[in-house]
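note to self: the first set is below, dont mix up w the second
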Amino acid sequence: MLNWTESPEIHSGAIHARFDRRAAERAIRDRIGDWRYDALREEGGWQGQAPLLRIPLDAAPDATTQAWLSEWATVIKLPLLPSVRSQVVRELREFDPVLLLFLRHIESVRLEVDGDVWHVMRHRRSDREVVLRDARGKERRYWLARRAVDVAPDEGAKGDRAEVAAAFALDRGSGESQRTWFNFFPVRNAPAPFSGVLLHATFLLKPDRDALDESEPEFHWRLADALGAFLAEEAIPAMAAAHGPACLRLLEPRDEGTAHVREINERLRRHVAESAFVPSLNGALASPSALWLYCDELAKLLDQGEGVAAVVEAGGETR
């Protein structure tokens, strides 16, 4: 938010908070001293970190905000910096409702800048179907499923639960969205191969945050195994049922970067290769002895090629 404004306000339930960049600067100067603060700025700033500051919870909403709170559960006000106003308006006009797809509780978002309004909504129509509606009333339907994952560091630990989830468009028609797995957390410059598949690893219950380091390879391996089973048992069969087996195409091997990523991909391929999803494609394929499935390219799995169910290596023969 501080890239867009110097004084954001958040009003939600009993919380009324205002953060002021200039007040924060004064508080930091008082805490660490002017010379140290100026030295930090000369060295390149905080580099993503800053001292923990108290945010005042006494920012009473004005009349306009109070009126909004009678209709909305949460109101966020961002007095925009003049230097970014045109950029913000442009980005809001390009806001994609698919960003709301994996949320659990937010069902409606209204964005307003200088009288321009954008309104997007989501609702779950059934256990596996979510509908998104944009400001023009256009609806898009998606299959979405989640699965809880036990990511405890050892068998005796309790309370470490994450989840994996995946989604794809149900509506037929032209456009990239019909051939894409949607990703909640896009992975950039990180040792994870899931850029084409949602890997949702928010902890549902974590009493001891020191019990598990999310950067540890074991954490990612557990999620990779769970994601492999989830794709094989639910997501891929559902996609084949919705769009036909021709929508699936297994991809050729390619360079996967670090050993960490290669290990995760190998675990995922092995898990999927041992699963039952291949025979489920209308009996089109027998279980292959080697099945190459590259998760970082799953966006291409919905390639609408005619007459090609999959590319499989089995016994040295490619079919």
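second set (the one i keep forgetting abt)
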Amino acid sequence: LNYLFFIVFLIGLTTAVSDSYTIVYGVPSGLKTALVFPLLKVTTTILMIYACFRLLFNNRYLLYSRLFYFGATLISVLALLQLNTLNFLGFHY
């Protein structure tokens, strides 16, 4: 679900920025809609971090499965840092 929000955001961003005239005259409405999805990604990433800490100390799952989920969580956190660097978290235009 977390990566689905990211893919929907990227698709919305490319469709909002594809018309060069709307960018010159103001913020496109599609961009305003697309900026909701990184905020949803923040909430699901927080849930992933919580689940990751619970999985790391649980011995019922294989080590490979726990490391895979830790890697997916790390990639999600790094993607959020990149979105924050590019100023896509929130409505800062």
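remember for set 2: The helical segments are 2-17, 20-24, 29-34, 36-56, 63-85.
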